[in-house]
Design goal:
Blueprint lengths: L1 H23 L9 H8 L9 H7 L2 E6 L10 H6 L8 E6 L3 E3 L2 E3 L6 E5 L6 E4 L3 H4 L7 E3 L5 E3 L2 E4 L16 E3 L4 E4 L2 E3 L5 E3 L3 E5 L2 E4 L1 E6 L2 E5 L2 E15 L9 E5 L2 E12 L6 E5 L12 E2 L11 E5 L15 E3 L2 H5 L20
Parallel strand pairs: 1-2, 2-5, 3-6, 4-7, 5-8, 6-9, 7-10, 8-11, 9-12, 10-13, 11-14, 12-15, 13-16, 14-17, 15-18, 16-18, 17-19, 18-20, 19-21, 20-22, 21-23, 23-24
Main location: secreted
Enzyme class: hydrolase
Catalytic activity: [(1->4)-alpha-D-galacturonosyl methyl ester](n) + n H2O = [(1->4)-alpha-D-galacturonosyl](n) + n methanol + n H(+)
């Protein structure tokens, strides 16, 4: 009898702790508590981690890149090429300060790769590819097709010139992330049109700076942007997001929480690139140059019936919603709950803190 009671108590305790952990995944309303909250929820020893990820993290390799010859390689391309096909260990490419003029691809066979830079002197990976010469998808300075990618303290840049109204093929991607379960910490993304192609998969961005003019965060991924700065470099019409969800059954979307929007232009939060486009801004500062309509249907009025554009407890002069388009919504607490939670990106199985080197 005593043994049965003990087992029951342990089972109840397990349920309590498990449910408590799930509740803790909700993004805090107080921005000052975010760092500790995230640390509590990204413990690398937790049992929920994907088994292959947990195994990879137990075996870490560090490769150094220094363009001046003081590392294992002088460029990032050679460092990537040195990683074996079917890689099964966390491989950190530690990149020394400097500008690396390279066009990089990490293919799907090279999982568990991390780019790491010095936070006080961040390395810059730079190229000038455009859609005219490469297609938008292939114009990226850095393209990642592999799963479990991470970047910390890296600048991703596309130096293609600012598009003019009559310029064709001017889309120029700085980063394309197409692999599953990727995280970016304290990274910077520079471009104009289509800066960040958040293509597909579950992704997490924290403390990042993203600059562009038109659709500068686009794709069909399922991502959370936490404590990021979104800088519009638009002179006239400007748009932050173009989400590509096109099917009702897809639980994807972009969530921006505790972010800051600034910069110039007649700015919109997003436009309806695809019929089921889904974007939420919460606890975010919105500037005075945000167009009072907030959102744009991209010339597809029939998309108005099916897009999901939400705002929740934002602040700043642009946060007044009484002139918003009628197909956007101010979210209730209950509606917001689904998006303001790490469960939205299934983070308990994969999200880890950045390395400490």
């Amino acid at each position: 009898m005593a043994a049965c009671c003990t087992m029951l108590i342990l089972f109840i305790a397990f349920l309590y702790l498990h449910n408590t952990a799930i509740a803790d995944l909700a993004i805090p309303t107080n921005s000052h508590t975010i760092n500790q909250w995230l640390l509590d929820n990204t413990n690398p020893m937790r049992v929920e981690l994907d088994a292959e990820l947990a195994e990879a993290e137990r075996n870490t390799i560090v490769i150094t890149v220094n363009k001046y010859g003081k590392g294992d390689f002088r460029n990032v391309t050679d460092a990537i090429n040195s990683i074996p096909v079917g890689n099964k260990v966390r491989t950190i490419i530690k990149i020394a300060p400097g500008i690396y003029h390279e066009k990089l691809l990490i293919d799907s066979s090279k999982r568990f790769v991390t780019f790491y830079g010095d936070p006080n002197s961040m390395p810059r990976i730079s190229f000038n590819g455009t859609a005219k010469f490469y297609t938008t998808y292939n114009s990226a300075t850095v393209a990642v097709n592999s799963d479990y990618f991470m970047a910390s303290n890296i600048i991703f840049e596309n130096t293609a010139p600012r598009p003019t109204p009559r310029m064709e093929g001017a889309q120029a991607v700085a980063m394309r992330i197409s692999g599953q379960k990727a995280a970016f910490y304290n990274c910077r993304f520079y471009g104009y049109q289509d800066t960040l192609l958040d293509d597909s998969g579950n992704h997490f961005f924290k403390d990042c700076f993203i600059r562009g003019s038109t659709d500068f965060i686009f794709g069909k991924a399922q991502s959370i942007y936490l404590n990021c700065e979104l800088r519009s470099d638009a002179i006239g019409f400007g748009v932050i997001t173009a989400h590509g969800r096109d099917h009702k059954g897809l639980d994807t979307g972009f969530v921006f929480a505790h972010c800051v929007v600034n910069g110039g232009g007649n700015l919109f939060l997003g436009r309806a690139w695809r019929s089921r486009s889904r974007v939420v801004f919460a606890y975010t500062y919105l500037p005075s140059n945000l167009n009072p309509k907030g959102w744009d249907d991209m010339g597809f009025p029939w998309h108005q019936r099916t897009v999901f554009y939400g705002e929740y407890k934002c602040m700043g002069p642009g946060a007044v919603t009484n002139q918003r388009v009628n197909y956007s919504r101010v979210l209730t607490d209950r509606q917001a709950r689904h998006f303001l939670d790490l469960n939205f990106i299934h983070a308990s199985t994969w999200l880890l803190p950045p390395p400490k080197l």
